[in-house]
Amino acid sequence: MLEQVCPIMPSRDLGATEAFYSGWGFATWYKDDGYLLINRDRVELHFFHNATHRPEDCDHGAYIRPQKVDEVSDLLAGLGLPAMAGFPRFLPAENKPSGMREATLWDPDGNLLRIGEVITNG
Questions:
Q1: Which of 23, 59, 89, 102 is most buried by its number of CB atoms within 10 A?
Q2: Model's pTM, two decimal places?
C-alpha cells in the first residue's frame, strides 16, 4: 500500500541546491521560484525556498536506503567534502550498533541525509 515517502526540506538558494544534488546524479523534475523537486532512481527530494534559513539550525533530513551503501558512499567521497565542519560535509559509510552500515551527508543548507543498508537482522 505505502510505497514511497518524499521529504520536504529547506533551501536558501534553490539553484545552489539543484547544482549540489546534480553533482551526485539527481535530476530536476520541477522547479519554480519557491519549490524544487529532484529525483534519482526511486528517491525523490523536495525543497522549499527559505531565504532566512540557517544551516546550523536545520532540523530537517531524510534516510535513504540504497541497495549498496558503499557505492553511494564512494560516490559522495569523490565530491571532496569536508568531514568535520561546515556545510556541506560528509562522513563515509561505517557499521553502526543499530545493525546498519551508514554514511552521513549534510547538504549546503544543513539538511541531514543518512544513507544506509541493513547489515544484520538482529
A1: 102
A2: 0.93
